[in-house]
Amino acid sequence: PSFYIWNSTVSACVRYCLIIPNTDRSPATANNTCSCRSPYSWNNNSGSCVLNCSKLANTDNSTQVNFTCRCLSPFSWNNRTVKCELNCSLVNNSNGSPAVNNTCACLSPFSWSASSNSCILITCLRPYSLVSGACVLNCSLVTNSNGSPSVNDTCVCLSGFAWNSTSKTCQ
To answer: For residue 143, how many C-alpha atoms fall within 13 Å in the half-sphere facing its CB?
Structure first.
């Protein structure tokens, strides 16, 4: 198809942006170029809107090849949505299921970190210990407790000591 149309106002053929793929469908500009919808940019040499990887998140900003962009790990190119999407199968210590709300499900004792797009090891502050992927009060680490398992985040203290729920100590 012809990408030009006669414009009687300027007595010249102008680009017919309406039929050029990936334009925002507005009329040609004064310099006879079309406005492209994101993430595309106008290419004067080809007279078309081309994929601009630098306009997309999670790419390496390189030039597109075969209508795809190179994605940073752990993202993968999605032709349908034209973007790099989180791919949990590329995330160490995830269960590999598809991302939900840009979050991967992590194997225990790991937890999702949105800032690093990774499953990180949960670390517990003393006197807590990691039990089945959760930090649980470990009374055997509390000085002056009898060491029995905690109940309702409370330890049983030895005679002469009282439980302090704020500091998690027997005082």
So the answer is: 2
